[in-house]
Write the structure tokens for this entry.
Amino acid sequence: MTTANDFTQAHDALLVAAFGSPELDEQAHLSAGMTPAQVETLRARIVKLRDAATDPEACAKVMVNYAATNADRSAWMLIFARFDDFVRQGKTPPTAFIEAINERLCVFRSIDSNSLDDAFFGKQGKGHPESTSITDYWWEETNASLVKFFLSRHQTTRTAKKMRGAKSPLDQAVDDTIALRKKMSNTNERGLSVTTIKRHYGRFNPKK
């Protein structure tokens, strides 16, 4: 089964295939507050993406499989965006994209579909809860990463004995995450409750 992580890896690799990847500026990242270990993790990810980008066809197949299997509108929109990247860069889009889009257009032309939405994104059955889209998944992962970042900062400055009435490092990290997300947004963000952010953190950082 193609997972959200598989889709993310394939998507990012296609960005590298279309535009290339910048060289890692280690000093700049260290100056911005990243630890040497975090820089090395980033370096390893860049190398992995560059390797995957050498086979854009395989990456495209992963994205199409995920989008079709999950009837994920966001995933299809990202496929369209990466298709557009290749065209604008004067490169031929992966055959898997061309074939998948053509197949969906054939469905649209048939009597089995009433709209492009039906053809590409599928129909949601009654009583069947809508699955999390890939973009929702990415936001959840971002929230979890932010909590982890703030948590590491609070834990390093935490006194040996917590003051009475003070928030725990995790609660403070969740509050900081919510505050940052709201500050970054020009609209009212939904799904930024303490309970929701804690659930996101627990999903990507399960207790050992």
Q: What stands out?
A: The chain is about 70% helix and 0% strand.
